[in-house]
Amino acid sequence: MFRDLDGRVALVTGASRNIGRSIAVELGAGGARVMVHAARDAEGAEETAELVRQGGGQAQVVLGNLTEEQAPARAVQSTLDAFGQLDILVSNASVRPEANVRSLDFADWRKVMALTLDAAFLLVKAAIPALERSSAGTVVLIGGMTGHSGAADRIHVVSAKAGLTGFGKALAHELGSSGITVNTVAPGLIETKRTTADPAHHASRSNPLGRRGTPEEVAAAVRMLAGPGARFITGQTLHVNGGALMV
Are strands 88-91 and 9-12 parallel, antiparallel or unpaired? Predict the structure, then answer.
């Protein structure tokens, strides 16, 4: 098996299920040792870690609510304590509730911003010293297609995901001199397990391939950006949406 990430350590947030889980498993399959983060779902996070181990990798679990100011730094420190280094940071944790702007209150707006955008900022701030020590420091932000296309009843989610794109570009400028790459992966409609019904805007979306993507296809994009062949790629957004933005 091609182990392009041998010797690397990755922290993946929001990795107890769906896209985050697939990213953790994919990076582990590439040879990375993986810290699996979840807010509260210890069982789901441990299931992800076990999947990494079954694939021949090493994994541990860290829990923490990333909307708490010190929690992102604790997740980074836990990774360093467990594995001694950090080379790949994947900021995936997010929430995607629906609410019309007329009924959306500021507290709910802030919940989305805090987890999607603020936590990414705090994670990167905490991780920079370790990433600078790495010979292949990598940050991958998980954005979303609606951050580029827009969507009704998701103004808080769309704004946060669009903010990640600008955040990543600014970071790429600032961290490039340290050899750290920063890119965003923007999934389109992905076949994930949801605890609620599909968002209303999904019904109006289509793409040339005529199907939804899989979490594994998003994970493959992340692995590519974290690998040795992507060291000259930074400040970019990689769209994984079956061509939906062309429709």
Answer: parallel
